[in-house]
Amino acid sequence: MIKIQEPSRPWEIVRMEWVTGLPPGGDRIFNAFLVIVDRFSETPIFLPCHKDDTAMDTALLIWNRVVSWTGLFTNIISDRDPKFTSALWKNLHHLFGTKLSFYTAYHPQTDGLAERMIQTFTNQTPAILEKGWNPKLPQDSLRKELVEIHPTASSFNVMLDKARKHAVRCMEDSFAYAKDKWDKSHATPDFKVGDLVLVSTTNCNNIKGCQNLKDSFAGPFFINALHGENSVEVELSEELSNKHPTFPVSLIKPYKSSDSE
What we know:
Elements lengths: L12 E7 L12 E7 L5 E6 L5 H16 L4 E4 L3 H4 L1 H10 L2 E4 L10 H18 L20 H35 L10 E5 L16 E11 L3 E4 L11 E3 L3 E3 L7
Parallel strand pairs: 1-4, 4-5
Antiparallel strand pairs: 1-2, 2-3, 6-7, 6-10, 7-8, 8-9
GO biological process, one term: DNA integration
GO molecular function, one term: RNA binding
Protein name: Integrase catalytic domain-containing protein
């Protein structure tokens, strides 16, 4: 189980996901939402957008609507969305000094925070859209003025800082407990480039035949590359060519000759 970097303050590390397939509406004909969740406070931000927005469109949306009042993130966690793989998006994050971390979709050890927020938000979407596609958004102002703290506010900030540090310790203890429990019940095979493996079909909906009767695993496929200890890149067949070739180790298993018998 690979640990995701834990935040030490609000809006240091965020998770981003997109909600698409919504009915178009609003002055700008929005048809999607960008969901940004702060991993420290679990505070979500929902930004109306378009499913075909370019990397530049998305970067400007985040800069104008979020960074203007949260400050710039140091780490962004996202699945392998095309927006994040474009060279322009990477260059923007390089200029902003932000580290872009790619984690594979359907990875149970990655981070379920945004997924839970999206599920809750999706349930509320009909009620939100009834009020129109123009929710109140934060002002596009980046306040840089230094404000002198009143003495009575100083003690409050001290207590708030202690509460934040306590929250960080609780998050670390929670992960340590979950990691110990996971590692005791899951032994990860030692994969190497060139190994033959089978890939779980749990999230593959384009395999021919009845979905209820499809095999639990497809393959075998050769491993082309290793990405850390928790994911591998495989050489997929034409039938699965539209799937991303990188899978978490939890969704693959070593191929044995007896598997084809």
